[in-house]
Amino acid sequence: MAPKFSEPSVKRKVHHNDGSRAKKAKTTTGPKHKKVEPKASESDGATFSDSDDGGAALKQGKTANGQAAGKALEKGQTSREAHAKQKQLAQERKAAKPLADEVQRTKKLWERLRRKSHVPKEERQQLVDELFSIITGRIKDFVLKHDAVRAVQTAIKYSTPVQRKQIAKELQGAYAQLAESRYAKFLIGKLLVQNDTEIRDIIIPEFYGKIRKLINHSEASWILDDIYRGAATKEQKAHMLREWYGPEFALFKSGNKGEVTADLSKILAEEPSKRSTVLKYLCDMTNNLIQKKMTGFTMLHDAMLQYFLNLKPDSEELKEFVEVVKGDENGDLLKNMAFTKSGARLACLLLAHGSAKDRKQILKTYKDTFQLMSGDPHGHMILLAAYDLIDDTVLTSKSIFPEILGKAEDLDPGNITFMANDPNARIVSLYLFEGQSKSLFPSSHADDLELLSELHEIRKTTCKKDAEVRRKELVASMSPQMLAAVAAFGKELAATSFGCQFIADILLSSIGDKTAALEAVAATAAGEPNPALPEDADPPYPPPPHLSLTPHGGKLYKTLIAGGRFDRETGTVKRIEPPLNFADILYPVIKDHIMQWAVGPSSFTVLGLLEAPDFSSKKELLKLLKLEKKTLERAATAAETTAEGVKPKLKNKDNGSKSKSGGNQGARLLLEKLQA
Fold it and tell me: Disordered: where is this region (predicted)?
């Protein structure tokens, strides 16, 4: 509660005749804003007022009503009237500023335009046209005003390509200044997000020669790095990154035929005398940003990688650089590096070249970040590097596996399905089991294989433990969690193609008791492959297809029945030891619907049962098939059509069924087995 103040008065000290000081009398204050009327006997001038006859000067303060203490109101004026007058004066001063009326009008237009769903298209076009009529030719005056720049951004949002180019050209020469503005910097992003080549080539060159200044600016640094990361071409990036090497590299081109290059090794090869100068300048710029805690910039990570790649092995410069990276408080630098291409590569190289102590400290820095890194296009490589480079497999398994998978007794289904189906996370979860297979590293991840090859070459001199021994130890540590995941969430995992591959790789390559996991996978095959949908189904949508009707489901069952992976060189299946014996686990589950399997898309699953050397119910299965021989014959010679009578565009021979000549190929092979 605000304190109450009494009317201003002069405080005087009262003394007794004997020199002692009298105690201050207690007084009560009247109600707020209450004026004390003088008595009739005092109105003749017997008393005096400080305002009339001078008196002590009062210290300025504020009264309860907000009026400045000691500042008298005009005669007959209340505090409300005084406040209204002050407000009017403020409005008059504001109106006296340049473009006051125009700014006020643009703000009203913006207030209307920003409510997109409440403005009809025709009215919005009229408002945009009016807005352009106001700002055209005076955009530089508007964009540096925090309230007016929003209207300009709205104009860009609804503008035509011609109008955007008009705005971009009108702002030429001011983009560096706009980048330093707290509000106008977003205008640059609005212009560049449209991916207009002409606008991009107008804006980005204006930053050349100013990179060092802008990257250290609290406002400009973020929009500059966004431009570098998301809008600039390869050549424009090279122009911007070269300025980290020294002022002269911002002005002159380098390389053969005059092309611009930011590859520091090429630059130093052409001008070796400048090596120490360039590295010192680059080191100073990177250190400056690290000390300011501005460590999230892609441009910074690119510059740091160039610096690292051009340091001599075992040099003092390299040791100092590693200490700077490790010594960053809270590990923000390493964590930010994990999510850019250059930063992740640099972190992997630090693991490769570092000592055992360095690797342990780097791994510790990423604690509580492994889950996020596993799904990142760049961060997942640091986890693969940790698998391949850290000799202390106990440290690796205790640090990484519980975070990305969870403990075996407390698994999260969402987390497991993410690790199985995400294009990057699945590499982290299956790399130790499957290695550098094409199915795990498609062409989109070719850069991953190149980096792994580089790391494997370095570890020959920096790692002590044999690579295969390290892998087996990690597989043994990871297997219990992976088998528990398959046992607990077999149905959820089998619903997708990647999930089925995840199940197959775990069951074929893991170590430990696989019984529960195999039974969970077999349970996914339960039920009738073609159930009739009830008419009163709620909701009235078809259920997901039975797993035997999907290509990935049939392939999963076939692989597990075979008990190993197919070797193209020998043309045979390399069975694992001990054998899975999945045929005996699956057969009791599908026995009641075996003919629907035999003539359906997963007919090769039934064929696999007959060919499995460890299948104990082979005679029983043959007997059932012989009883339905005519059904097999009809399926083997059936026309190649779907239920709707349309020829399918794709045929999958692996899961079964239709050959080029028509009919179910799996059913035809089953007939041959019966006749043998």
Answer: 1-101, 638-668
